[in-house]
């Protein structure tokens, strides 16, 4: 009798485990709640001046970003092995709201062991956010859009940078980023 009772419990536990695990999967094809689902990012644009590049960074080049306590979202494109690295500082960012004519500034880092850096003035760039998803369940945002800068990025002479860099109109898409 004890043997049957133990066998029965094992079967019940195994059945419950299958139901629980099966309930965790989704066959709907809609993975909006999953930060890793369909992860992509990109920055496409051109810079000219002290550095000349047609930039086409995607997730294989490295993408990231962070939020700051003062409502600024920083999206970054390019990694250790890519050049140049570009950061877009979305000023007064509001999660979940698509908007035109948002202010931003851009920082360009030469990359590949060269620490020279250039930066536009605060508010020198205009961003049009065409997609802005805020998933409060996972505390993350994902956005995309386009932008342009009215003035060039100036050299940070403390890094040894010289000359200005003009930034042509660009498009961007972020990966899922933490939002406070």
How are the secondary structure elements laid out?
Elements: H1 2-24, E1 42-49, E2 53-58, E3 63-68, E4 72-77, E5 85-90, E6 99-111, E7 114-119, E8 125-135, E9 140-149, E10 154-155, E11 165-167, E12 170-173, E13 177-178
Antiparallel strand pairs: 1-2, 1-11, 1-12, 3-4, 4-5, 5-6, 6-7, 6-8, 7-10, 8-9, 9-12, 9-13
Profile the largest sheet. 13 strands, antiparallel
| Strands, count | 13
Helix content: 10-25%
Beta strand %: over 45%
Poorly predicted parts: 1-37
* Count of DSSP H/I helices: 1
Mean pLDDT: 81
Spell out the helices and strands N to C.
Answer: HEEEEEEEEEEEEE
Gross morphology is globular
End-to-end C-alpha gap: 57 Å
- Rg from alpha-carbon coordinates: 23 Å
Helical/strand content category: mainly beta
């Amino acid at each position: 009798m004890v043997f049957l009772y133990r066998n029965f419990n094992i079967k019940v536990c195994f059945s419950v485990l299958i139901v629980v695990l099966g309930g965790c999967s989704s066959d709907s094809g809609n993975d909006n709640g999953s930060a890793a689902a369909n992860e992509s990012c990109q920055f496409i644009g051109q810079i000219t001046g002290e550095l000349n590049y047609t930039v086409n960074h995607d997730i294989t080049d490295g993408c990231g970003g962070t939020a700051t306590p003062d409502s600024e979202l920083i999206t970054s494109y390019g990694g250790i092995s890519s050049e140049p690295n570009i950061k877009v500082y979305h000023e007064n960012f509001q999660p979940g709201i698509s908007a035109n004519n948002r202010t931003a500034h851009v920082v360009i880092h030469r990359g590949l062991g060269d620490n020279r850096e250039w930066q536009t003035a605060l508010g020198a760039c205009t961003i049009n956010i065409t997609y802005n998803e805020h998933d409060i369940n996972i505390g993350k945002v994902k956005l995309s859009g386009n932008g342009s800068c009215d003035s060039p990025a100036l050299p940070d002479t403390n890094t040894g940078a010289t000359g200005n860099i003009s930034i042509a109109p660009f498009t961007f898409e972020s990966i899922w980023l933490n939002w406070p």
